[in-house]
Amino acid sequence: MNLTKKGKIIISLGVLVVILGAGIPIVVNSVAKDSAVKLTLLDNAGVMIEYQETRIYIDPYNFGDDYADKPADAILITHEHGDHYDPEVMESLQKEDTINVFPAIMEAEIARFDGIGVVPEESFMVGNINVSTFYMYTSDSHPQSSNYTSYIVDINGFTIFHAGDSYNIVEYYDLKGKIDVAMLPVGPGCQTMANQDIINVLSIIEPTYYIPIHFAEGADETFLDEYKDSLSDYKVVHLSYFSSRRFWI
Known about the structure:
mainly beta, 4 helices, 249 residues
């Protein structure tokens, strides 16, 4: 499957030049303004990814119409549980050409949002950004047979993995060394990976950055403190809900 959406690309160099007394220009900062990927952790497992003029949401949840002024180019849903699929929030993020992506099993939701159904190991384009679907399952609450999907967002070779709700699954060995930012749930362990299993997943995937998602109040701090030694090989980006981090690529 190859889905494209036209988008206008604007490049701003953002160069700061200082003119010395002798009239010699010195370039102080030539970092391109639009080379930053901005990740915002929303509520629970919700994430907003912004790059240039493209905005992608994954599992947006529980913020009403607060982001109505930031409509989605694409919304990616991992599965139908109410803390991942919030139809009212999805409605608030729509614009004329929003791409709505769901696991293929979510037939009613696909029909409601004129969406696209996917299964693991497919890919499509959102503007010039490549999105791949990957595996996501636990036990009875997220059965493998449902073909729920996690997502890999590839922005000019900078890869962001959103695990959704998943245990430590054997398919993660296929991601080893391929992920820059891993967004993994903190718990609860009855529904997702938790505690030592998170460390095990990180050791398999070997991302550069780790961002905790899907945590109850205080559970993120408890986990990061308890496992700080095991996390020392990764750059931990600890975000509170509705806070952001920019990555320069």
